[in-house]
Specification:
The complex is a heterodimer of chains A (442) and B (393).
Chain A lengths: L11 H22 L8 E4 L6 H6 L3 E3 L1 H10 L3 H11 L7 H11 L3 E2 L2 E2 L5 E5 L3 H14 L3 E4 L16 H25 L5 H24 L12 H11 L4 H20 L9 E7 L6 H9 L3 E6 L1 H4 L16 H21 L1 H11 L4 E7 L3 H4 L2 H12 L3 E6 L9 H18 L14
Parallel strand pairs in A: 1-2, 1-5, 5-6, 7-8, 7-9, 9-10
Antiparallel strand pairs in A: 3-4
Helix pairs in contact in A: 1-9, 1-10, 3-5, 4-5, 7-13, 8-10, 9-10, 13-14, 14-16
Chain B lengths: L8 H16 L16 E5 L6 H6 L2 E5 L22 H11 L8 E4 L4 H13 L4 E4 L11 H20 L5 H27 L6 H9 L6 H17 L9 E5 L8 H10 L1 E5 L18 H11 L14 H11 L4 E7 L3 H17 L3 E6 L7 H18 L1
Parallel strand pairs in B: 1-2, 1-3, 3-4, 5-6, 5-7, 7-8
């Protein structure tokens, strides 16, 4: 047993923002629970590739089934929903988010956070293949109209499609055509005419939000890292998704940036003594995320970055993800094409992005979290790990559990692997705790 | 004096089947020296559908990479892909890493599922000299502009192949390839018609081997083999047996082992299926005049089959399966899914619930390309077939 472990830090400042994020989430769920009663139009959307900007102009209340599912994990009730789904016939090998959602249908939409309204429309996308099969469940079982937004992704390694390229123009043209089709469908469902000015207003808010979010992400390049990407960051992207394009969302992100900047100025880190900076690749294990983070923080390890914060926020974390509000629809298509590349390529050609992020966040190692039932995240993970190990000589750890299925969390086994990883990292660092500080302007 | 030799249709069929069987079970790709005449290389593609005509016009032999079957030992892929990934993706990775597919000019995969998309990254990291691409066939074929987008993807692929081989692929060559593939599609449609109308004349396994041969041999040669086989099958005078008529689904991507098909043939007439549906994706001929890229792109939408991995609001999935059952006058269905195949497993549930509501008998099976034991499955199929025969009687 090593003698260099420490107690995890209690980070009161970050807790404040997490609590504020929790409050906004609760308010969102409360509004959802009355949506059908208020006869508000309701749309099911996913966190990646969702055309939220258009839906907001029609005043859709937005249900995020992935967030509903992960919340069953956070609230330790996922097993009940998953079991209902498996009893219905779903295989253990199917995505646990899907199964939790099927369980929700079987429980007549009773969710631990409140009643989930029946949707008038579902917007799926091809960013994750399971999204489409998931939406088809609603389409066939609940007769929910489904619109699949097809987003062209990265076609090959080293692929670039930027504004001005013929390829970006072709992709944008296709996305814009689909947006126009979606708008017609929204008009029919809601009985409202599409309002381009409202789209520009929503986009203006998203621009502000994305600016703050990019800065918040970049601020974690500082040493010590002001927040843990896989604890605080999860709350932050929850707000990025649920409140994308709302005043509350902009205000949250503004305060988050100010708060994070202040922490950096004070030299405060997420952990009391940051010894190892890490990158988390994959999706969280929401049933045990606090425990997982604790296993790392006791060693002074902090997740400075996670690709989850990129793809699970729809790829909207780069400076060029700004809408030109003078031509709202065209610009929405242009940015969506780029965001899809960031969100999709993040996984299928992950070695390229990770190689850059290792440098940007000055990490000492990568933790890969394979998810048995999530092929989007996990299929290329072991190969990516092998590639990065060889090419960049960066220490890596591979652990496996699940998004929300508690049956796949093996505490002792994961703890052993985490401890062994840190012992190796420590040896590599010469036995002494790392002591560094670096200030990066964002 | 020339003695006229009587046409022995069984001998002819046996000859053709032997050739097709050898091709269908071959997981290697021809090396440069083994290429059929007129071909300059090979290009691999993953199921389900791929516009082979563009590759054929480039004088590359299109090779449909269907995993490694149940004889392949994984030496490398186990460490590169989790045990929870479907067999076809794992064995395809193995064939890439162990050098079997090393001579291909490239490998193209599609957004049929997430594991399939990851193959492009694995290829790029491990076989960097090959053209490694995702062909983004759209999951929205219903919005205006879908055909135009598909055409732009095909043009992009055409350009990538041209760069790789160092010469252009002209429209006339693609039109010529479309003609050759249209002949093939007609022959395959006829093969399936016979299976629906006179299933005792050709088993599912025989038809499958005849069809699968196209994944390894030139379409021209396949056309000749199919023509000979169909002629021989028409001449067959086998008696109809007392077997239930069954539709088989779940073989759209990962392929069930031949032994599994044989177990079904022993007990049922498989009168329709979705095995290798990508090879017979078009329900009618692709137009042979005009812009060939547009003809292929438009056909993908307006004259195409359905599959669990293509969302299309004009082809509801229960709808096309019910049509298959109805058109083939089937007594029931075998609803299969490959192990760890998420689209297949999701579809299996939806289909079985729908069949419950429609009161259509069905059997649910899970398979894996690498499975080697079939006794239990054969018993399940036999029991299902017997229950149907009793019900019919």
């Amino acid at each position: 047993m090593s003698t260099t472990t420490t107690q995890p830090a209690t980070d009161a400042a970050s807790s404040t923002m997490r609590e504020e994020g929790s409050r906004l989430m609760k308010e969102w769920y409360a509004r959802l629970s009355t949506a059908n009663e208020r006869k508000a139009p309701v749309a099911n959307v996913f966190v990646m590739g969702n055309a939220v900007e258009i839906l907001r102009t029609f005043d859709f209340e937005l249900v995020f089934p992935e967030i509903n599912s992960l919340q069953t994990g956070v609230r330790k009730t996922s097993q009940e929903y998953i079991s209902l789904s498996e009893d219905y016939g779903y295989s253990p090998d199917v995505c646990s988010y899907v199964k939790a959602d099927v369980g929700l249908i079987l429980k007549e939409n009773e969710h631990p956070a409140g009643l989930i309204p029946k949707a008038d429309l579902a917007v799926s996308s091809n960013m994750c293949g399971t999204f489409i099969k998931w939406a088809e469940i609603w389409e066939r079982w609940l007769k929910t109209p489904v619109f699949v937004l097809d987003l062209p992704g990265q076609r090959a390694a080293g692929w670039q499609a930027r504004p001005g390229d013929a390829q970006h123009a072709a992709d944008t043209r296709w996305i814009e055509a689909q947006f126009k089709d979606l708008i017609e469908k929204c008009e029919k469902i809601t009985g409202k005419r599409f309002d381009m000015d409202r789209l520009a207003e929503v986009e203006e808010r998203v621009n502000k939000q994305v600016d703050h979010w990019n800065n918040v992400m970049a601020l974690n390049q500082n040493v010590p890292a002001p927040y843990n990407a896989m604890l605080d960051g999860l709350t932050y992207i929850g707000i990025m998704n649920v409140h994308r394009g709302t005043e509350e969302g902009v205000e949250f992100m503004r305060r988050l940036e100010a708060h994070t900047r202040a922490k950096v100025a004070r030299g405060e880190g997420r952990v009391a003594e940051e010894r190892f900076r890490l990158l988390f690749s994959g999706t969280p294990c929401y049933v045990s995320m606090r425990r997982l983070v604790e296993l790392f923080e006791t060693w002074g390890g902090v997740f400075a970055y996670s690709d989850y914060l990129t793809f699970a926020a729809g790829g909207m974390d780069a400076a060029d993800m700004r809408y030109d509000t003078s031509r709202p629809l065209e610009s929405l298509a242009e940015v969506t094409a780029m965001a899809a590349h960031r969100g999709l390529s993040n996984q299928f050609f992950a070695h390229e992005r990770l190689a850059q992020q290792i440098k940007d966040y000055a990490v000492d190692g990568i933790v890969f979290h394979g998810i048995k039932s999530c092929r989007f995240v996990s299929s290329g993970m072991a190969d990516t790990r092998e590639f990065l190990n060889k090419r960049l000589d960066i220490p890596t750890l591979y652990i496996e559990s699940d998004l929300i299925d508690p049956r796949y969390w093996s505490d002792a086994q994961i703890k052993n692997r985490v401890d062994a990883f840190f012992e190796a990292l420590q040896q590599r660092a010469g036995g002494a705790p790392l002591s560094r500080s670096k200030t990066v302007s964002a | 004096m020339n003695a006229q030799v009587a046409y022995d249709h069984e001998a002819e069929l046996t000859t053709v089947l032997e050739r097709c069987n050898a091709a269908a079970r071959d997981y290697n790709i021809p090396s440069k020296s083994e290429l059929p005449e007129g071909y300059i290389g090979t290009l691999g593609h993953f199921p389900v559908y791929f516009p082979e005509e563009i590759v054929h016009a480039a004088k590359l032999l299109p090779v449909n990479i269907l995993g490694g079957g149940n004889k392949l030992e994984l030496k490398y892929a186990d460490a590169r892909m989790g045990s929870f990934i479907c067999s076809i993706c794992r064995s395809t990775t193995e064939l890439g890493l162990n050098g079997t597919l090393g001579d291909m000019a490239g490998f193209v995969t599609h957004p049929i599922c997430d594991a399939a998309k990851h193959l492009a990254g694995i290829w790029a990291r491990n076989l960097p000299d090959q053209l490694s691409q995702i062909l983004y066939l759209p999951q929205n074929v219903n919005s205006p502009g879908a055909a135009r987008y598909i055409a732009s993807e095909y043009q992009r692929l055409r350009g990538e192949i041209e760069k790789k081989i160092g010469h252009t692929i002209d429209d006339e060559a693609i039109r010529n390839s479309i003609q050759i593939y249209n002949v093939n599609r007609r022959l395959l449609r006829e093969l399936y018609r016979i299976r629906r109308d006179e299933p005792w004349k050709v088993s599912c396994t025989e038809a499958y081997l005849l069809m699968r041969a196209r994944t390894r041999i030139p379409c021209e040669e396949h056309n000749a083999l199919l023509s000979r086989a169909l002629d021989a099958i028409r001449h067959r005078s086998l008696p109809a047996q007392d077997k239930p008529r069954i539709v088989f689904v779940g073989g759209f991507c990962e392929q069930p082992p031949i032994e599994m098909l044989e177990a079904m043939d022993d007990n049922c007439y498989i009168v329709d299926d979705d095995l290798l549906v990508g090879l017979r994706w078009f329900t009618e001929d692709v137009p042979e005049t005009g812009d060939p890229i547009w003809a292929l792109a438009e056909s993908y939408i307006v004259r195409s089959e359905a599959s669990p991995v293509q969302h299309d609001e004009n082809k509801p999935k229960e709808g096309y399966l019910l049509d298959m059952v109805k058109n083939a006058k089937a007594d029931g269905a075998i609803l299969t899914a490959a192990k760890f195949c998420e689209p297949g497993l999701d579809e299996q549930i939806a289909w079985s619930k729908h069949f419950d509501a429609e009161n259509i008998p069905y059997l649910v099976l899970e398979f894996e390309e690498k499975m080697t034991s079939f006794e239990q499955m054969a018993m399940q199929v036999e029991t299902f077939a017997e229950s149907l025969l009793f019900a019919i009687a």
